Amino acid sequence: MDAPALSAFGGILSASETDNPGNRIKTVEYKSKQIYLRGFSVFVSLIDHLIKHTDLSSADNVILAGTSAGGIGALINGDFSRDKLSSVESLHVLLDGAMFPDQPSYTGEHIMANLLKKTFYFHNIKDSVSIKDCTSELKISEQWACLQPDYYNKHVYTPAFFIQSLHDTWFSAHALGVQCSSKGCKSSEIHIVDQSQQNFHSIFKNVMLSKGDGLFVSSCPFHWVLLKSTFYENLNINGTTVADAVGQWYFHRK
Fold it and tell me: Each residue of 135-148: pLDDT tens digit?
């Protein structure tokens, strides 16, 4: 069984000259300088706009949340946002389905690691202010690891809450190459999934060592819950829903 290819981007992000005639395969250059996607610059501009045109800077509580890959961005920009909004009394980070550990797939490939590497270098993230504490201690060839929340979290002082499935459906299908249902999996596929679950357990043991961080880890198969009210308000562990857990963490309730 071959691992499934990652879903190709379409529309304006398509690499196909037919679907996207204006697409450039080679690096875009302007005045002899390479141009990269600069999400951090966009983020800074957005925060500046909100500070100027809204009451964001006078807010008492702020939550920077992200789902899936957006959770990586939220964690990476947590400390920067906290410094930027220094007048805000409390700023926390909420990550939903954002754990993408490097684990060999069903066919032995490091699909997730390769994807994160491409993302890191394509965006030229090594020069980003918000991630320099992490990248500065690593060799250039290893700096992509800072995109993994389980690695980067040790560099963050902003409190973070992680919502994660031990059987993340996106991670299983696209990073591990396992798309079978629970009743139709081969023993070799089950072995890969079990390894993934053990990896997640190991990651969250480290997260639990931080007094300011929180967790909601479920064995139910899903990728994210924040954008699904039914999941957020009803998915529970021993009667404690995701919404309850986030509230208890954020407001320091017991």
Answer: 888 998 899 999 98
